[in-house]
Amino acid sequence: MQVLAGSVLVAMSACASPPVEKPSPGSGDVNDAIRYGRAFIQELMEKDDVPGVSVVFVNDRKVLWAEGFGWASQEDATKMTAQTPMKLASVTKVLTAVAIMQLVERGIVSLDAPISKYLPEFSIQSRFDTTSITIRQILSHHSGLPHDRMQGFKLYTGEDAAPDDLIEQFRNLPKDARSLHLTSAPGQVHSYSNLGFALLGSVIERTTETAYWDYLEKHLFQPLGMSSSAIVYPNHESGIKHANGFTPEGEINHRYIRDISSGGLASSAEDMGKVLLLLQGKFPEVLSPQSAFEMRKVQNESAEFDGDLRFGLALFLSPDHVRPKSLGHTGDDFPYHAALQVLPDEGFGVVVMTNSTTGQSLVREAASQILDVAYHATSRAHVSRQDDPELTNATVTLTEAQAQSYTGQYYAFPDLGIVEVVANGTDLVVDFHQTRLADAKLIPKGNHLFDIRLRLFGFVPLPTDLVLSGPKLQLQFETINDTQHAWITTDGMRGSIPIAVPVKPKPVPDSWMQRIGRYEVMDTESNAGKRR
Q1: In the listed set 321, 344, 378, which residue is the last one of a domain according to the structure?
Q2: Mind giving me the DSSP string for 404-435?
């Protein structure tokens, strides 16, 4: 049943409370967030053995805090600073989207034009009625393009590991996509696609007759004064030296990806503070407030299978019922991890980055908790999240009829295969048909939300701290087309696609039932297997 990818034990985990005590809400002092964030990051670095972290925190007017912790390289005895570049991985997509919006402002690109207008050689196989994929659909991950399965999408570690023609491969993606198939009809459902943002890099190059990295340097990095930002690419002299990465095998100092406009950017915390301000409309000479607003606006209200998922242009948005509203993006290019998050109504924003394999949960937790403290320190409402009826933690009791409405067989992601939700009176249990090693009891919390209690062999409780620390994960059901679908929610925010969709088992035909029995293999070529 994951979201950000992994086994059932990884997906169904919950985290302990932050180890550093939070300030009381309502102080009116935004510096509470800085003091708390500094202590919280250092605590998590020690707990998770994370060598290096950098952070930047802004309000809607200026950078309030930028700092580095630990090491950019222990081999070179180089400390991490707010000016140290690190790989941003998929946070690169936000910068690619900004570049596209600049071209929209100049009348060079239209959000609702098909991508084939700018890349006429692009084609893709499809079983659907239309393959007219628009720029807007790609920016909002509703194009139906596959995730990253095109041959060649991989990470290259080491200065000499990347092939000499990696740039050529990147530029050939529009015509090479003809061997692929759409995964869904354009506009139908959210489907995250690295390939889509790689194609947007080609749109930038083709419409401006400029290399992707040169366009960003001229129209984004230079105007914003981002002197520690560049594309990381073989034989590309960027003038920056980004932090080494820390892996279980040791330090690495080169990490390349073919799809550069999807995940090839390196930047510093100090530079990313300017991006946070840009997203809030504070650099109108670089990106108009109208374009920044369009990026923050919900783009997928007509996609029925998205449920309460909200998505802008390259930005994940919080569901409508969640307060405060937030938007952001994360990136993972092991060992590098980054999290960008903004509270647009309050004007706060944060980016947290690390160069360590063990830092994936740190960047997400730190970004979320820093903004949480800032919001509750300065908000006039001072409402505790525990008092929010949408996020209540109280257990509710189902009737037998209500429990029965959730039952049935579901297809989860491939690692789990078929799972079955079974009702025993008012109790619900998830039976994993493929593994049979464990099941999960569902604890109803209201609003079709369930806590997940894993049980080894069906009766031995698995404490969540033995599984994995991380955000609080729950299972949420929603009825679509008269059938239940299930999502994983993370701290109240639902995942991007259903992780369990209903399936109706078909009866076994009589012709196959008649084949039931024990067989033996005959030891001669002239005799077939004989049943007995």
Answers
A1: 378
A2: HHT-EEEEE-TTT-EEEEEEETTEEEEEETTT
